[in-house]
Amino acid sequence: MVGDTFPPDVNGASNFSVRLAAGLARRGHNVHVVAQAHTWRQTAGPEEHEGATFTVHRLRSTRWPGHDWIRFVNPLRINANMRRIIREVNPDVLHSQAHLLAGRGGSTEAIKVGLRIVNTNHFMPENLIEHTGLPKFIWPLGVTITWKDATRILKRASAITTPTRRAADYLESKTGLHGVHAVSCGIRAADYTPSFEPRTENRVAFTGRVTGEKQIDKLLEAVAIMPADLNTIVDIIGDGDQRKALEEQAVRLGIADRVIFHGRVSDAKLRSLLTGATVFAMPSIAELQSISTMEAMASGLPIVAADAMALPHLVHDGENGFLFPPGDIPALAERLERVLRLPEDELAIMKNASLRLIEPHDIETTLDVFERLYRGEDVDDPVTEVPPLSSKLREQFRGLRRRARDALTD
User: Fold this and answer.
1) Contact call for residues 120 and 157 (beta carbons, < 8 A)
2) 71-73 and 61-63 as β-strands: parallel, antiparallel, unpaired?
3) Cα–Cα distance measured from residue 117 to residue 154, given in angstroms and rounded to the nearest whole number
4) Within 64-125, where are the H helices?
5) Would you say residue 400 has pLDDT above 50?
6) 0.85 exceeded by the pTM?
7) Any residues with CB less than 8 A from the CB of 259 and at least 6 apart, and which?
8) Segments making up each domain of the chain, as ranges
């Protein structure tokens, strides 16, 4: 498995890569991961991640100027390094998690020896171009050139996957490729703890990279215009190049005392913060799936998300949360207020809806599919779309909750 990001990086591609590698190792496979080193030393040896041990080959890398976590391996040495690793490991399949540098080198050397290639696309130019330093008027041309390059590299793979059907359709439209599989990144829902205790405060949580495309600034502006009686507290969990600017924005908006920047936290702390939240907000416009949103759903949270890319795949408007037009700050504020003012029984309905909708994204199903793709077998994409509850069933559920509440009161 080879990619351009891996722990200790915290992002969707890194999180998926480590969960997949750990899950495969637990199933008895001999997993080798090629990843960037975070020191100048180049190493190879066993590492423990997600409760599993597998071999990680760490290549020397350099931090991207002006960015807090993006690192890139030496492009002049990646082919030679991958040639050496493939010769030493003699793998049955190469799974590329990126096409930019490490994945490019991996697929270049894999095709020379007839090695089967599976490629998972986590790439959207919109997520990276702001970090290139290019002037904005060049961005459209840069995006076009980047997609042409991606097409050339992705065509090398025997199978291509991406996390959702919407993301697969998007990739096919941008590259002209066909037969892209929609395979969820997967999540182990049992690792997260929903709470149905009556809330004592209104907390809005966001988790993820604190970068421009996540549009966290819109979330802060929305909270600033929400009614004061809600006393809304915002938990920003994660770190990135926009943190200082957002801290300054919170001061300007007069909400600094109600916005907590937690930075990077342990898995246990993340899960605790999600359990204690009332609602999860994801204003990002560039999500191919959003593992953060899936973690929030597994924690039993209603979701307020931008109606963009793959987020409508997870958020059924009016059932487990609400969608809002991307960038529309008043609409975001209104949707958040709507959730925060729900009576406890209505809030519980949305919590249960999130738990129901996350069920098909089980990591074990994801592992089954990739094992078959590695063997070159035909696969049917897992069905992750859950039909919405009928209005009749929804009303029946409300009635059951009311009767249970009345019985407790009596």
Assistant:
1) no
2) antiparallel
3) 10
4) 78-89, 102-112
5) no
6) no
7) 220, 223, 233, 234, 236, 250
8) 12-182, 190-359
With respect to CATH, is domain 190-359 assigned 3.40.50.2000? yes
DSSP string computed for 195-238: --SPPSS-EEEEES--SGGG-HHHHHHHHHTS-GGG--EEEEEB
- Round to whole Å and give the CA distance between 96 and 20: 12
Tokens of 132: 């290139």
Residue 12 banded pLDDT, cuts 50, 70, 90: confident
Please identify which residue in the block is written with the tokens 């077998």. Answer: 377
| Residue in the structure block whose two tokens are 């495969």 | 24
CA 399 distance to own-chain centroid: 35
Nearest residue to 97 (alpha-carbon basis) of 182, 10, 20, 203: 20
Q: Report the half-sphere exposure of 123 (CA within 13 A, side-chain side).
A: 28
Q: Tokens for 361?
A: 């994204």
- What is the four-CA torsion angle of 368, 369, 370, 376, rounded to 10 degrees? 110
- Quote the CA–CA distance of 39 and 10 in Å, as a whole number: 17
d(CA 101, CA 150): 11
Separation CA 144–CA 53 (nearest Å)? 40
Alpha-helical regions (H) of 90-138: 102-112
Q: Please state whether the peptide bond connecting residue 135 to the residue before it is cis, i.e. omega within 30 degrees of 0.
A: no
In order of 126, 215, 270, 281, the CA distances from 348 in angstroms are: 36, 28, 21, 17
Interval 261-287: pLDDT, tens: 999 898 899 999 999 999 999 999 878
Cα 37 to its chain centre, rounded Å, is 22
* Token pair belonging to 129: 């171009």
Same fold across 12-182 and 190-359: yes
Superfamily of domain 12-182: Glycogen Phosphorylase B; (3.40.50.2000)
159 forms beta bridges with 118
4: buried, middle or exposed (CB in 10 Å: 19+, 13-18, 0-12)? Answer: buried
Q: What is the pLDDT of residues 53-95, one digit of tens each?
A: 999 999 998 887 766 667 888 889 999 999 999 999 999 999 9
